[in-house]
Amino acid sequence: MALIEQLTPGPERVVIPEVDERAARRTLREQISRLERELVSACLDACPRLTLPAPPRSLAGPRLLSLGELERVRDELAGRLSRVRDDADAQILRQAESRVLLERMLADPPAHKWMRISNAQLGEPGCKHFHVRPRLGPIGLLAGWWHVKVSSGCPLAWEP
Fold first, then answer.
1. Of 39, 33, 86, nearest in space to 94 by CA
2. Which residue in 51, 47, 43 sits closest to 119, CA to CA?
3. What's the gap between Cα 119 and its chain centre?
4. Is the pLDDT of residue 81 over 90?
5. Radius of gyration from C-alpha coordinates of the chain
6. How far apart are alpha carbons 48 and 83 in whole angstroms?
7. How far apart are alpha carbons 152 and 127 in whole angstroms?
8. Which of the four, 7, 31, 53, 73, has the lowest number of CB atoms within 10 Å?
9. Omega into 48 within 30° of 0, i.e. cis?
10. 7-22 per-position pLDDT tens digit
11. Which positions ≥6 away from 124 have C-beta within 8 Å?
């Protein structure tokens, strides 16, 4: 008889384990704050600075986020940081190519007629430009006298 009672379906007891979520929440919040710091740092360290990607959508106002929502926020921040780092790496590569081109321009100006490189393309602050131009204007153009002219930088701010 006892065997029959065990085989008949009956209400099963569901045991919910007591889990302390405080440690998991603290860890996720620390990860989120570290990712936010790294994201801002990556954008500000690049020259010229990168713009921050659009923030994630709001989670419907102030409230206590569940563990799943905290994990989603962390994962979105990690994805944004990855994209910003990729953009920064691409920017550094373009700047290195511009520096190589500037070295070539300085070494052989006639081969790079009318080329112009700015400080922003080199990853340096300021408004300076390097421009391959003929020396002495039209006379240098006819004679083939080319040189790299370095601009003086940003124009002065004059009052109107």
1. 86
2. 47
3. 19
4. yes
5. 31
6. 17
7. 8
8. 7
9. yes
10. 556 567 766 667 778 8
11. 47
Classify 99 as helix, strand or coil: helix
Number of H helices, E strands in the chain: 5, 3
Sheet holding 116-118, edge to edge: 116-118, 129-134, 146-150
Give the Å distances, CA to CA, from 145 to 29, 76, 108, 113, 134. Answer: 64, 56, 11, 10, 6
In the chain, the N- to C-terminal Cα span, in Å, equals 104
Q: How far is CA 137 from CA 42, 116, 134, in A?
A: 44, 16, 6
How far is 76 from 69, CA to CA, in rounded Å?
Answer: 11
pLDDT (tens digit, 9 = 90+) per residue, 95-135?
999 999 999 999 999 999 999 999 889 988 888 899 999 99
Task: Tokens 């919040």: give the residue.
Answer: 29
Give 50's DSSP letter. Answer: P
- To the nearest 10°, the Cα dihedral for 21, 26, 32, 35? -130
The span from the CA of 148 to the CA of 138, in Å, is 16
